[in-house]
Amino acid sequence: MHEAGIALHLIECVVARLEPLPHGPVRRIHVRIGAMSGVCADALDFAFGCLARGTELAEARLVFEVVPLTVACVACGATNPVEDYVFRCPACGSERTAIASGRELEIRTLDVEDVEVPCHA
Amino acid sequence: MHDIDLKSDLLEPNAELAKENRETLASCGTYAVNLMSGPGAGKTSLLERLVPALARHLRVAVIEGDIVGSADAERIARLGVPVHQINTGGACHLDARMVHHAIHHVVRDGVDVLLIENVGNLVCPAEFDLGEDDAVMLLSVAEGHDKPKKYPLMFRRADLIVVNKVDLLGFTDFDYDEAVAAARDVHPGVDILPMSCRTGEGVTRVVEWIERRVAAKTAGHHHAAAVG
Questions:
Q1: ipTM of the complex
Q2: For residue B91, which residues of chain A lie inside 8 Å, CB to CB?
Q3: Where are the domains of chain B?
Q4: Structural domain contains residue A121
Q5: C-alpha to C-alpha distance for B58 and B105, rounded to whole angstroms
Q6: Contact between residue B125 and residue B38 where contact means Cβ atoms under 8 Å apart
Q7: Is the domain covering B28-227 a CATH 3.40.50.300 domain?
Q8: Does residue A31 lie within any of the structural domains?
């Protein structure tokens, strides 16, 4: 439901970052999205497509990198993937774990065309 | 073609406002709860139990979050404590910005406990930090014992899980032990309390849990004031 708000913020962030730089069209925007970020990549993609119309990002495409959900164990130090949302350490059974990855929701990089320099030769 | 680095957290605007809310509440010595559940699990009924019990010793205020309407705020206003209604106008959750405005309406006169009732929804509210001290969530027996694994983010986020409507246990296939086991898979060590707002069973333990957390924060506040 709130993917639209996130897409709007994404567009504002990218436009603000580009504003002071000489740049051609933006081709791709790389986004990292955790498996437990609570955000649906398809819905974010759809919202972005709608909201980018009429902006300089209208032709840009979102490229998602999905980050797996993992826990780091405080007791034994192991980091393991979380299966079936069981957050105990699969290595030693300890309950003292912290999410190591899988909650990300961030813009990473932009693929941008170079500015065409007019030829005066 | 070239790359431009842009490491930017997309929930940063909410996180920043939540931090501000947390600082405002800390400076007022106010402990805040973000009360979350699916629709109809008993959030407002729990508040009707909690507010009079907490108000015996503490100054209590409430923020009510609903998509539309003020029926819940009217129920709370009858209890004689300050209440502020937020209507999200369609949004499925409260965010830190909405609460930022509301805090100034209800916390100005000195409040020990601020209870924030979120929009009834097991999904989106879990993603938005409001600046609260504790997230308390309700799971009601009528919803079924399979919910922790279906809505893991919410159960992971909760500092206290209250299982409401336990007076209905004999009329349903709800397996209490299975619900607790699933909740503890998702969130090992989380506090879980059974309760019925209708009969009053277990309400005292929920009140005591909150009173302990208020006392812990107040002690910290006094300590910080003495040091600072």
A1: 0.82
A2: 1-2
A3: 28-227
A4: no
A5: 18
A6: no
A7: yes
A8: yes
